[in-house]
Design goal:
The protein is α/β, with parallel strands linked by helices and 462 residues long. The protein has 16 helices and 16 strands. The longest helix is centred in the C-terminal third of the chain and has 27 residues. It is elongated and about 120 Å long.
Length: 462
């Protein structure tokens, strides 16, 4: 009993003598998001949220500077933000940055919204490419009040549906986070924008911070409610900050997710395959063309494009190629150019923002360049194929020569100043004039020259 008491006292003394280790706060992740919101951006943010959750980060900060982007990518980001198991701060930074269009929706979906001075947000009206918004010109936001937006006007059904859907979506986000819902709807229906100071006064954002350190200082001690009802108190003083920038994969995806680049890659792919068909065995044009074609198709599948427009665009290129081989007197070439331009105009869907638009000058210039390259180069290649060969055995067809030697049954003839092994259906003798009719293996097939025989037989007949 005494031994047990002594042992317990020893453990107590050792425990009291050990230094008390302070609990180290969890780190903070910062994702740098710049440029248009695309499928690559959505993948970067959703992956970053999952990695931050796995690493046990207490807070995720999205440093945002965007002119907007694709509706589908924006909704993917927001769905992942709403289900996150850690607080997410959207911080519009650096100074002069903006959270326009899709960026406004993402800011409203955050647990905490912050901006730097001299930044702005808003102008969140959905813009349909190629259709024109209710204002007359393509890419112009809708004008009018909410009642006018809800009114049903002839020819504006699709635009009204997109407008009402976007307004209801951002209002629901504002109500979820307790932010100003009236400005949210005005940003969609009237394309309104406000500065950081106005956003703070009207309750659109929670904080204004000139730097990330200032933001973290203001966040210290703030309590945030998560999706599962858990309330988390932030401890951001003296915490390590881990910055994450897009890696090469996300930069490559963002580079490919552009309709103009995708069209150019498709054209380069068809060019390469066309030149490979015209010059079989070259390999390089075919391999490069196939890679460009696959990259272009991969870029298009990331975007909400109309595949009928893509098919029409490819049909236009094929018709230009057909102009080379068929005597259509320009009908196929002109029709192909028209199909190419119309396919490019129909290719981009209503969910693609205006800065991804395939403009008519771009399509016409690219179509004319394609016509010149395909029809011009193809015509030259076809003509060169029809010309007589100037090298190899094929170039010897019809050439005249003279038998200069017979050794061991092998007949040699001088043709173009060179000695060739020849073979003939009839016996040949030294000095016989011959003409080349073909080739077999490394020998030339020849016949006696008929002109010589006629010349030698005419005096005898006389």
């Amino acid at each position: 009993m005494i031994k047990c008491l002594i042992l317990c006292l020893s453990w107590l003394i050792v425990g009291l003598s050990m230094p008390v280790q302070a609990q180290v706060p969890s780190p903070i992740r910062v994702l740098e998001v710049q440029g248009a919101i695309s499928p690559a951006t959505a993948d970067f943010i959703t992956t970053g949220i999952a990695d931050a959750e796995s690493a046990g980060a207490q807070l995720l900060v999205l440093e945002l500077d965007t002119p907007g982007g694709l509706d589908a990518s924006m909704r993917d980001i927001i769905r992942r933000m709403l289900s996150a198991r850690l607080p997410i701060v959207v911080y519009v930074a650096p100074g002069g940055a903006r959270a326009a269009s899709a960026g406004t929706f993402i800011l409203y979906a955050s647990h905490i919204a912050a901006m730097t001075p001299a930044s702005n947000l808003g102008a969140a009206s959905p813009v349909a490419v190629g259709a024109g918004m209710p204002g007359g010109r393509q890419g112009e936001p809708a004008k009018g009040t909410a009642e006018e937006g809800n009114a049903k006007r002839p020819g504006d059904t699709l635009e009204a549906k997109a407008m009402n859907d976007a307004a209801a979506y951002i209002r629901s986000l504002a109500e979820l986070r307790g932010r100003d819902a009236d400005f949210a709807e005005a940003a969609v229906r009237e394309a309104r924008s406000i500065s950081a100071g106005e956003a703070l006064k009207s309750g659109v954002i929670d904080l204004i911070a000139p730097s990330l350190d200032s933001l973290l200082s203001q966040l210290d001690g703030r309590t945030v409610a998560l999706a599962d009802g858990q309330r988390l108190t932030l401890s951001t003083q003296g915490v390590s900050v881990e910055r994450v920038a897009p890696d090469w994969r996300h930069r490559m995806l963002a580079f490919l997710a552009n309709p103009q680049l995708a069209v150019i890659l498709l054209m380069l792919g068809i060019y390469g395959l066309f030149f490979e068909m015209m010059s079989p065995g070259a390999a390089l044009p075919g391999v490069a063309g196939l890679i460009c074609l696959l990259l272009g198709l991969y870029g298009l599948q990331m975007l909400p494009v109309n595949w009928a427009g893509v098919a029409l665009l490819c049909l236009g290129l094929l018709m230009m190629i057909g102009e080379v081989f068929l005597p259509s007197f320009g009908a196929l070439g002109v029709g192909g150019l028209l199909a190419f331009v119309l396919g490019g105009l129909f290719m981009t869907g209503p969910d693609v923002p205006s800065y991804y638009e395939l403009s008519i000058p771009f399509l016409v210039s690219v179509g004319l360049a394609s016509a010149v390259i395909l029809i011009g180069a193809g015509t030259v290649a076809v003509r060169s194929r029809r010309c007589r060969s100037v090298i190899g055995h094929e170039a010897m067809l019809g050439e005249h020569g003279r038998v200069v030697g017979i050794e061991g049954g092998v007949v040699y003839a001088e043709i173009r100043g060179e000695n060739w092994r020849v073979m003939c259906k009839e016996p040949l003798q030294l000095g016989d004039e011959i003409v080349v009719t073909g080739s077999q293996d490394l020998k030339l097939r020849v016949e006696r020259s008929r002109s010589v025989e006629s010349d030698t037989s005419s005096p005898q007949s006389a």
